[in-house]
Design a protein that fits this description.
253 residues; alpha+beta; Arc Repressor Mutant, subunit A; 6-stranded antiparallel sheet; 8 helices; elongated
Length: 253
């Protein structure tokens, strides 16, 4: 090893040495995850084991684990321990993507449960959004999308029958609404609004969320040609799904 290499290694070692203990523990855990030594859903050693390994206080270990949990790296289960969090699906806010593609990109399996699929009368708000008269017939679906069996999105969608006349004939456990609508009425314009919301009791139950868990709502309106095609409200548990901003082509509706 050259003198320069020895010098650089010493600088690196010294830099690590001066880090607070909780930061060193965090870095060690992250390194084990990035190297593949720890994988998604693997259980970490107990706080007592970390204390013995590092020779630090339990408060120091707790801070490291707590911060990694807040950053979405770990998940802590009361009475069961601390685990490596599964990768969370991400949706790009400035493009329209199929939730099934986002889940597949995270290495997980998509499934869907159809809660509601009906022809309803448009209320004043939905009628105005879709450019219809109040009480006009609209298609309405409520679908829970899951990643590896865990709900990550509640999709509440109203569809203009003029834009997608075959909507009610689809099996949305086999094909997503986005996939069908991509073919039926390709989107030419859309509008997104993101809100932090408190889900209703029914919504929380469908998403299997704990009381007080944060939730993001993505409100989307789409147009196909000159026709307003859909008005959709998508709820995402904050701990299980990421909404990312970015530019890209339009992939769906």
């Amino acid at each position: 090893m050259t003198n320069a290499s020895v010098s650089n290694a010493s600088v690196t070692d010294n830099a690590v040495a001066v880090l607070p203990h909780y930061q060193r523990i965090k870095q060690s855990i992250l390194q084990r995850i990035h190297s593949g030594e720890l994988k998604a859903n693997d259980r970490l050693p107990s706080e007592h084991e970390f204390v013995a390994e590092w020779g630090v206080s339990r408060m120091t270990v707790n801070r490291a684990l707590r911060e990694l949990t807040a950053e979405g790296v770990l998940t802590r289960v009361q009475g069961a321990g601390t685990y490596v969090a599964p990768e969370r699906p991400e949706s790009t806010v400035l493009e329209i993507r199929d939730i099934r593609d986002d889940i597949a990109a995270a290495g997980q399996s998509h499934s869907a449960r159809v809660v509601t699929l009906e022809t309803a009368e448009a209320g004043a708000d939905i009628a105005a959004d879709l450019g219809l008269s109040t009480a006009s017939p609209v298609y309405h679906s409520v679908i829970v999308h899951s990643a590896d069996g865990r709900p990550v999105q509640l999709e509440d969608r109203f569809v203009n029958p003029v834009a997608a006349p075959g909507y009610m004939e689809q099996d949305f456990t086999r094909i997503t609404p986005t996939e069908y609508l991509m073919r039926s009425c390709p989107v030419t314009a859309f509008d997104h609004v993101i809100q932090a919301v408190v889900p209703t009791t029914a919504e929380r139950r469908l998403l299997k969320m704990s009381k007080g868990e944060p939730c993001l709502a993505l409100l989307r309106t789409t147009w196909s040609g000159g026709t307003c095609a859909t008005r959709t409200r998508m709820l995402h548990p904050g701990s299980r799904h990421v909404l990312r901003s970015g530019q890209g082509p339009i992939h769906g509706i």
